[in-house]
Automatic annotation (TrEMBL), chains A, B:
It comes from the Bacteria. This is Long-chain fatty acid--CoA ligase. InterPro entries: AMP-bd_C, AMP-bd_C_sf, AMP-binding_CS, AMP-dep_synth/lig_dom, ANL_N_sf, ATP-dep_AMP-bd_enzyme. Residues 454-528 form the AMP-binding enzyme C-terminal domain. Residues 36-398 form the AMP-dependent synthetase/ligase domain. Keywords: Ligase. PANTHER family: LONG-CHAIN-FATTY-ACID--COA LIGASE, MEDIUM-CHAIN-FATTY-ACID--COA LIGASE. SUPFAM superfamilies: Acetyl-CoA synthetase-like. CDD domains: ttLC_FACS_AlkK_like.
Length: 548, 548
């Protein structure tokens, strides 16, 4: 028996047409560095999105599901691209301007991008890539910046404002299948080629609803959100679409991501909400500690991308700003969890919940999978790899124009769940606490040893400056932990003493047998421990190992 | 280009499994009339929903998409039915206990219900119908009430608690197509047979998300909602499913719908939200005026089903309780609009928005259609019939087991939109104000005349106690208004004076030519003007008409 309900697709088009009419007065405010920021109403954004679609179709020949890339900061024009490109049936491809040049070239070629919309200030980054991007036929430039850097390097170059000027402010948007591709974003794994996640109209629409649910960010047209998280990072955590759905005003920092202008825009524009990674909040805290600013308009802040140090949360609590943990990844659109505590608790009782990654919404099913593939209980103790399932969770990666979608075994389970690569525990009331990356966990005799637990315990010793623990092959146990230690100035290596010290906080079977001192822990470009370097050094016999 | 997202269906099953785990501690509190209400956790509700599904399948043989009806008050067992029946693949059919017996019989036969779950207190209503319900094989009874009234009338009778006891507390729920039927509800039109709306898993899931969005009811597990609107009225406005999705505690009045117990349950249980029709709030106001009670826990109240008198809103404002208008109907799941004012307004500026029906969410597209079928602008002045479209809006009525779905012309447009039968205007910022039922509007020479406007203007005259204006056929204009007036004690009919009085507030071409005095305006069983009686009396020549 089928229902008698209408079969109406969930599309970005609907978000666009709704936002520009019912919430036509809401605004996107873009920071300019000038005395006054730039303000544009949702009604105007909608009209200009139509103009952009006409320009892309009629002038640049974008058709079908061709890819249109953006290399842009967070600003009003980028929001227009977010709405126009999927609504016309094409695919928005946001390029991460922090990636190395060779990865950007690989990604643009893999996506087969036809057009790149770029901000003028980013042309020095784009220009040297263009000779290596044969699919790109047009570059469309908006915002300040010297255009001449493109001379001789680019295909056809257009000024955004000139390109859209005078075109019709409405568009006969096609009725699209909700499972059609709307946007794509590549993950930049440290190993192998980047992998493309292709979001559908349906996934973006559902994710937008979830973001606006009271249990998540819960924003309305009475709110203004400061969108610091870049639009090239998982669609700015879904905010540009979610805000257009309910008329939430957007405050966009453009290229002014430094603590001083952020502090100024918060004090002047008084956003009620903000979203950014911990590093931003660290920097802002230092700024307002040196030069006090009123941040109190921000009732809530969504913080994700990395675990937030509890001390940072406490510091912001004192400023009247509540940081709320969220967990997600490119493959999860990204909203996976948010750490709103349950009801009826005191501030003190809420604390243990606030420092978790949070709870899953109904749209995200979760399970923990142990070292043997078994499903683990939610008891707050059993640690396993987190696998998730849902309508805004990736089930594959884009295989390129001629390829099948990719479903690598280490990323997707046989029954289609996403393997997040994160290891953690889930409490009986559904709160997730992540402890390790799966690749950093030591699989020893069918049990898992947390490298992070060992590192934290080691770094509590007065002689230890830094410590990194990695898995190394072991004939008997499969894997065993190798402890690499950076000693403090003047300290000498006493592995037996360190081992005894460790034994106070971890189980005996988890204690490392292999020890070495290194001058510094190798780090990635974003400052994380680069454990694959240590594993390679060990495999190549470059480390001087002491066996206890 | 297809997306790489997982293809996960949106189902009631997911609402059930999510609510019973992540929000297992949330509660359904059912009023009992005893010193202590009955409390049951979501975890227990979920376990019992599994037991109910096992009982329905294994003991009563419910299979496939068979219909299971409920004739129940709002209580924990009814919530269990809401979750178990759709999740097992069957269809929940809520029976409106206020309908006349012959309509209930027609509805049960049309839906071909196999099982009826009934509350003991409603058996006196059910028993006399049973001989006329050949499809009903089983009656399952819960709650207090004399079972003996079924003797000799019913097929197999089961005690709910005995039926589910000892069965497994988990169930291998099937993976269902999200467009599959989940629940059905019949509208009780004043003309013709009742019409069945069949909700899908998808429509219920999306509607639940919308209810929980901050712009709508915006509830979380920190809330308790007092669900006065019956579960047999459009799924209690979607609350039992929406609450389970985010862990909102439910306070269920069962059969205790009188003002005194409602006041007591509010004061004792301190719900943060409530949902009911205006009549309930009128009654409660009288109660707490006579015997003051603390209602202040209810930060917000959703009021719908009929327009709320502004005076009632003002009275509750003074009690610290904010009534918020919502508009919807059985065919719209029902959330169509909610009257949250836009941002940045004073209380006084908010008032004109609060008394509208409110704004549409992104999931509900709206248009106004004029007398000639033309689409009208949203200018706050052009009045047309409201038509809506969306994923939780009906596109047809159930045609019965062997019939095609019904798409009557007066209910659905050629392009599939629902004709709501409501006439109104929409402001430039998207706020809907309903003025008339389409069938009560007078279509005169290609223009519409609002019968409600004429009635309100007439009733402002000191001689007039009541007035009803109806359309009557007119050779020249198609239709013209007939004014029927009930005079106050001692007043005499002076139609010319009334016409002059009317001319002060309505356009000259709208003034009625036909007048009559009647002893009282005919009313429906729920107290609304029954204009079809007046139209029939006019057509039959029963009224003494004066032509001006």
């Amino acid at each position: 028996m089928l229902s008698t309900m209408q079969d109406v697709p969930l599309t970005v088009t609907r978000i666009l047409t709704h936002g520009m009419t019912i919430h036509g007065k809401s605004q996107v405010t873009t920071w300019t560095g000038e005395p006054e920021p730039h303000r544009r109403s949702f009604a105007d954004i909608g009209a200009r999105a139509s103009q952009l679609a006409h320009a892309l179709r009629d002038e640049l020949g974008v058709d079908g599901d061709q890819r249109v890339a953006t290399l842009m900061w967070n600003n009003a024009e980028h929001v227009e691209a977010y709405l126009a490109i999927p609504s016309m049936g094409a695919v928005l491809h946001t390029l991460n301007l922090r990636l190395p040049a060779e990865q950007l070239v690989w990604i643009v070629n893999h996506a087969d991008d036809k057009v790149v919309l770029a901000n003028g200030s980013l042309l020095p980054l784009l220009a040297p890539l263009l000779p290596h991007l044969p699919s790109v036929e047009h570059v469309v430039v908006s915002g300040p910046g010297d255009r001449s850097v493109l001379d001789g390097l680019a295909p056809t170059v257009h000024e955004y404002e000139e390109l859209i000027a005078g075109r019709p402010t409405s568009y006969a948007w096609p009725e699209l299948d909700e499972r059609r591709a709307a946007a794509m974003c590549y993950t930049s794994g440290t190993t192998g080629d980047p992998k493309g996640v292709v979001y559908s109209h349906r996934s973006i629409y559902l994710h937008s609803m979830q973001v606006n649910m009271a249990e998540s960010m819960g924003l309305t047209d009475k709110d203004t959100t400061l969108v610091v998280v870049p639009q090239f990072h998982v669609n700015a955590w879904g905010l540009p679409h979610a805000t257009f759905m309910t008329g939430v005003n957007m405050l966009m920092p453009d290229r002014f991501l430094q603590p001083a202008p952020l502090a100024e825009m918060i004090e002047r524009e008084r956003p009620t909400h903000a979203a950014a990674v911990p590093t931003i909040w660290q920097g802002l805290l230092a700024e307002v500690t040196a030069k006090p600013r009123d941040l109190s308009s921000m009732a809530s802040v969504t913080i994700g991308g990395a675990a937030c140090p509890p001390s940072l949360m406490e510091a912001y609590d004192k400023l009247g700003v509540r940081l709320c943990h969220a967990w997600g990844m490119t493959e999860t659109s990204p909203l996976g969890t948010m750490s709103n505590p349950p009801a009826g608790l005191t501030d003190e009782q809420e604390w243990p919940y606030r420092i978790t990654q949070g709870r899953f919404p109904a749209g995200v099913e979760a399970r923990l999978v142990g070292p043997g593939g078994e499903h683990l209980p939610w008891d707050g103790e059993s640690a396993g790899e987190l696998e998730v399932r849902g309508a805004w969770i990736a089930g594959a990666y884009y295989g390129g124009a001629d390829g099948e979608d990719l479903r690598p075994e280490d990323k997707f389970s046989e029954d289609g769940w996403l393997k997040t690569g994160d290891v953690g525990v889930i409490s009986t009331d559904g709160y997730l606490t992540l402890t390790d990356r799966a690749k950093d966990v030591i699989k020893s005799g069918g049990e898992w040893i947390s490298s992070v637990d060992l590192e934290n315990a080691l770094m509590a010793h007065p002689d230890v400056a830094e410590a990194a623990v990695v898995a190394v092959p072991d004939e008997k146990w499969g894997e065993r932990p190798l402890a690499t230690v950076v000693l403090k100035e003047g300290a000498t290596a006493d592995y037996a003493a360190l081992r005894t010290f460790l034994a106070q906080s971890v189980a005996k079977w988890q204690l490392p047998e292999r020890w070495t001192v290194i001058p510094a822990v190798p780090k990635t470009s974003v400052g994380k421990f680069d454990k694959k370097v240590i594993r390679r050094q060990y495999a190549d016999g470059e480390l001087d190992i002491t066996q206890l």
